[in-house]
# Entry
Amino acid sequence: MHELTLAEIARALAGKRFSAEELATTLLERIRQLDPQLNSFITVTADQALEQARAADTRRAAGDTGVLLGAPIAHKDLFCTKGVRTSCASKILDNFVSPYDATVVEKLAAAGTVSLGKLNMDEFAMGSASESSYYGAVKNPWDISRVPGGSSGGSAAAVAARLIPAATATDTGGSIRQPAALTGLTGIKPTYGRVSRWGMIAYASSLDQGGPLARTAEDCALLLGGMAGFDTKDSTSIDQPLDDYLAALAKPLTGLRIGLPQEYFGAGLDNRIADKVMAVVEELKKLGATIKEISLPNMQHAIPAYYVIAPAEASSNLSRFDGVRFGYRCENPTDLTDLYKRSRAEGFGAEVKRRIMVGTYALSAGYYDAYYLKAQKIRRLIKDDFSAAFKDVDLILGPTTPNLAWKLGEKNADPVSAYLEDIYTITANLAGIPGLSMPAGFIDGLPVGVQLLAPYFQEARLLNVAHQYQQVTDWHRQAPNGF
Amino acid sequence: MQWETVIGLEIHAQLSTRSKIFSGSATTFGAAPNTQASLLDLAMPGTLPVLNAEAVRMACLFGLAIDAEIGAKNVFARKNYFYPDLPKGYQTSQMDHPIVGKGHLDIALEDGTIKRIGITRAHLEEDAGKSLHEDFHGMSGIDLNRAGTPLLEIVSEPDIRSAKEAVAYVKSIHALVRYLGICDGNMAEGSLRCDCNVSVRPKGQAAFGTRAEIKNVNSFRFIEKAINHEVQRQIDLIEDGSKVIQETRLYDPNKDETRSMRSKEEANDYRYFPCPDLLPVTIEHNYLQQLRSELPELPAQKCERFESQFGLSAYDASVLSASREMANYFEQVQRVCDDAKLAANWVMVELASLLNKDGLEIEQSPVSAEQLGDMILRIKDSTISGKIAKMVFEAMAAGEGSADEIIEKKGLKQVTDSSAIEAMLDEVLAANAAQVEQYRSSDEAKRGKMFGFFVGQAMKASKGKANPQQVNELLKHKLEG
# Structure
């Protein structure tokens, strides 16, 4: 059962080959046996899962044919789940039981999905290795001495190891696409505003976007269909009709114009990854696509701009974790200042503190113009680069990451080297456009990802191209040894 | 040395929306602690703000009323600082792009002149909660009911030159927001609070002196006292050879003094930046046009109309138009009795002193506008004299019924029967024969003074009920004769 994709599960459940309860039971057992190697779950909600599964079976028996009915998933642990600990992988929220459900959680529950638990991640989604979690590092199922990427590393590891067929995740600078690439999965970061952020604990509000991680584009289409949509509770959510992602998958690629940005193939990119990317291009040509070289001249400024804007927003967003109303509070505070200082000093991990300090500095009087405003200008330039490029091409294609999954602890001494791993993914967040990563082969037994970028609200196009590619390749069908 | 005072005011007006500026919680005053605090007001992780359109409408109304530019695109910003009653660790406010830009308000000074006070800007922001330091055995309590209540912060230019002007300005703003129906103006409950920026400079000097900001003064009386105290403190400092330092001070009404709260060096760096959870608000021209057509008659317009339509003095007109309730009351009295001057006098003198004595607002007046108007009609048709009317008014205030009922019940109807008055006068003159002699032998000037004595005696004898005009005429006749 665990080998089935979400779409296959949907068909099996509809055909009554097994029940949602049987499936949930099987997967819970797999998590119990295998997850200790991976550390992908922070919380397993077995009782609640079985209850949801039985409810889904009851609904099906009553004639409900919802496509996600009984589908087992799990949520990245920054989506608020009522009555269940929502930790953001931080000590500061270790004792936080959310009093409400995130919109994404609520929508997926209403669609009949079965949530098996909460997934590990980088603390407050800050990181690209999932090593900064208070609950310990997540391991890559393809090589457990290596990182699964981040920040949605728990989501990626759990899906790649077939513990669950799909998971929710979020992407602020690449946190869906980069772990997808490093674990051989398909993941899509939708257009900013497509998926509600209500109940999604904020890292950088203007960049954060929820999306699915799964093995196939078809599964991403299924899950995204259940997550996306306008939400009056999120002022940045956009009131735009939802495309039928599943229906769009079958569209042929004839005439598709793909742009290859020269900046994505420069120094820093592992040559072996470049070769894999070009092999994908050849496949897509066979499917009818045409290729054009393009330029995104301001890409080089993306990382510095991101590391001003995201920490600036984070420094403010994380102020509410002050030990006053919820979350961790230090022992025996002597006064208010002591309460604040020690609760936060003891409650946040090193990377979170680093970004809070960077962001605080960037917003300080006298530095605001030089950092924050300058970064916003770069952001505008990057948006303009994409607008210009999309006049000539329908999609942009390149590597998702410059390197393969690295060894646990390898980049700990040098945070900037880890920041540079997001070089190809960050621009989509700054511009707000959708991006997808899909498996493109293996190097030394480690997965390689290719990234597709599209204009605003063209998630359906991204899923369509990835799906067509997956019809003629089987990278997405490979399973890691031992899982 | 001659000193000049320079004052600029920041007024926080709580907008009377039913729900908070970014959440659906109610804004009612006085509810049990934390019963009006939603997930957002508690700053629960993952919660997001949604702007209350009604707060925007109210801010726009204010902008239109002060003839201000209204920002076509206005932006919410975060003001970051840590305090337990600020649950998010930042206040959502407006910085570079406030909803209301430059405008002005004309105020009437005591000498009857009109002064224009510039208004720099007015912006929307959320209120904080309250920290409660009593009754918690050494700990502090936090009530977040007020957190997220919409405020309009109205910032004046440093155009104000005295504590009295400052009070006149705050009263005008107070009247205006109540006319517009955007703030209940209840200063005791903190619905309208005032920060006063005060500095002094030698008369004739163009540059401003160093200012101190007195935070959160919440009554007209305290504004005047706090400013006067602060001005004197600053003058004393400078004249003693020291300097005023830029700082925030608190006014203590019990001791009638201001004391330092924090200096400029200790001030927070608020790290303002545009709030990424809220989109810029675009105010469309048509929307403003629609609002403009809904604007009520404003205090200044009403004041002008009272002068031109009713022939009232500028001072009377400004007092009567100071609040919407006062103006409505006056106009209702006027409609009933059709005599604006009598109506104005009764509202401004007898009614005002009655309300003042009992600490009542005009809408709580025990005498209704209709009752007062009816009573004035009885003065006009000579049923009662002005003096008797005061007794009738007091009886009405005590709830003894309408003017007619009271006049009837107490037998206060004026005596206009000449023969009865004459008989009464004869008795009075007989009882004061010596004074009559004296009168008759005096010159014109002295007679004038003595005449009043006889009128007084006569009115006393009639228990005030004799028609004063008739008493005058008949008395003159009898004394001269």
Q: What stands out?
A: The mean pLDDT of chain B is 92. Chain B has three domains: 3-290, 297-410, 418-480. The CA atoms of residues 7 and 198 of chain B lie 5 Å apart.
